Amino acid sequence: MNQSTFDLEAAAGTIRTWLDEADRVLITAGAGLSAAAGYDYGDEDRFRELFPALHRLGLRSRYLVGVPLPPELWWGYWAVHIDDIRFSSGPNPLYRQLSSLVGDKDHWVMTSNVDALFARNGFDPDRIFTPQGDYGRYQCSTPCTPTTYDSRPLVEQLLATYDPATGAVTGPLPSCPNCGGEVEINVRIGPEFVDAPHLPAGRRLDDWLGTATADTRLLILEFGAGFNTPGVVRWPGEHLTRHFPHARLVRVNPTHPETPAGLEGRTLPVPVGADHLLDALTVPHPAPDPTVAP
């Protein structure tokens, strides 16, 4: 779809209508939503600002999974990264816009993002499913226990000994409170991931979807979900649209807005960033002047 010929205002009008007609709304989101909100993992300028030592080593973005680093540098990176994304203070305007847009509609959130920006910006934490984890928790690397731990004290402890010049922490490295072994942030990187804290929300979401009927008008608003982990957000949204005869899917993605064949009339590809769409949706639209002929 060509962005230059895309009619954003017409799409916003369709979405307003679909939202008004919906009985329920499922918001699904990938990394593109947080990028539009100002947390772009691929932003080299922001990376250079936060991690000058790592930038001097030749690294250029926060996509560091699989990059071998000494433990002192690895934990220095995690401390700064999580403090910036997970524990930053103040509301996020884009997420607040989305919360206001949905309003009192019966809704749930399912996201591959682990930054808790939904819960921190007006969405009910009990109605958010984060199957990929949460930067706010850490776990044993083995793991020796299904228990996870609050990462805020850990991040504060690491930042207290963090040296921006070297990018390293100089204090003791984190250890498991249960067995004393190594720990990692509670995000789905490998088979050691502890999903126990997130499963109850997943079951509640299943129950919510299970009470929907063939007549339920479900609107799925998908933001920034590409093909890094399509099985988490993108494909489930398509499956639900096929399953419920009156479901509709809005796919907001500047690079991969395509929607499946066979769902014509019930899907809307929107090839722009979430910020542009939400701005269009939240612009006041005055009622027509009855003295002006249509």
UniProtKB/TrEMBL annotation:
Residues 5-294 form the Deacetylase sirtuin-type domain. Zn(2+) binds at C140, C144, C176, C179. Keywords: Metal-binding, NAD, Zinc. The keyword Cell division does not apply. The keyword Protein biosynthesis does not apply. GO terms for molecular function: metal ion binding. This is Deacetylase sirtuin-type domain-containing protein.
